[in-house]
Amino acid sequence: MSIEIIPVTEVSEQRGHSVFPPSGATRWMSCKASPTMSKLHGVYKSSEYAEEGTRAHSVAEQCALLLLRDKMPIPDILAKIEDPDLVDCMRPYLEEIEGTYFEEPDSWMVEGRVDLSPIYGVQNQYGYADCILAVNDELHVFDYKHGIGNSVSPVQNKQLMIYAWAVLQNPKASHINLITLHIVQPRAIGEPATKSWTCSREELKKFGVEVLLAVSECQKYIEAGEAPEEAFNPSDANCQWCPAHNACTGRVRQVSAALRLPTSLPSPKDATPDQLSAILKFRKLVTDWFSDVEDEAYTRISLGETVPLYKIVRGNRGIRRWKDKKQAEEVIRSMRIPVDFAYKKDLISPTRAEELNRKVKREDGKPVIGDRQWKALEGLITQNEGKPTLVSIEDKRPAMVFSQVTEEDFNDLAEEGPGEAASGKPV
Question: What rounded mean pLDDT belongs to the chain?
């Protein structure tokens, strides 16, 4: 009997949270107060996107086991996936894993519990790696990302480097000299589905020292039950996913400092560039703060507490959907409604067409849309330019270059007169 691959989330939910999770290493290696605050005040909330990612990871785990344990061909594995949207996501993940070895890896683990205590110097610390395998003298560490927005880079990826360094503590891994980190993020917009980065054992050893020192400092504050002011490092990146950001005293100090405004602010037109920069930075900080205040008020009211002048109401109803699409289809067919009225056919989008060229393959291994066909379709595609957006200088996108308009340009335009412009002459 054929067994379909479906998400199983119960096991993931029972794994709990480590004090120094590898996925949060960028945060706790930078903000040494984060583990202490998380242990004392951490609130671990789920979300629709987190649950979607958990389901996708469950499918990825089952697929990787069929590949490595059962040696099942990738097309056969993909055929077992119940959710068609996940088929195209799992294909690059499985191909990236299979592409690292010839017949089979020397050793492997899927969603295996990795003991982090030896590299942390703290007992009972662990994490779960998506997939790790060894081939000859090289170690491969894989991480599946289901997110669409922020593209994750494998270069000096602290999460995967921690897993790799922990595995290398095993005496049986003494022959490993090269470590390759793989990020598979098939839904990332404008990015390749797979990316990798390779480092040496010596590079990883230096990073291991940094990890040990960071954990040692964090642990000192945990044992003291509090962290000094200098241990806090609130920032957009550090605070976004911190379980204790709502209770963070460092963040309170940062917002409080920002709220010490002058008696009067300059008008936007009269503000200097430095003033505009300071005000914009202040706006993001306070906007995030008020968002957390709103979340806290919602939580308290939902638990029965009264917050004066505020209440919770039911929002607009969601989009109507069929409870059972197949049942609804049968009923509509029985009504003898003409096909043109009962069904709506839409042409695939350019994005979907590109996926059919680059990612989706037929049973014979060839893409659904060939390269020559895709080139013919590219000429039929139009796309609006992205709207100019003001962002922080830390944003990775290149800055737009604007041509300078001078007073002389306006004078030349005035001399031409409205008639010339209206007749089609370039202005």
Answer: 83
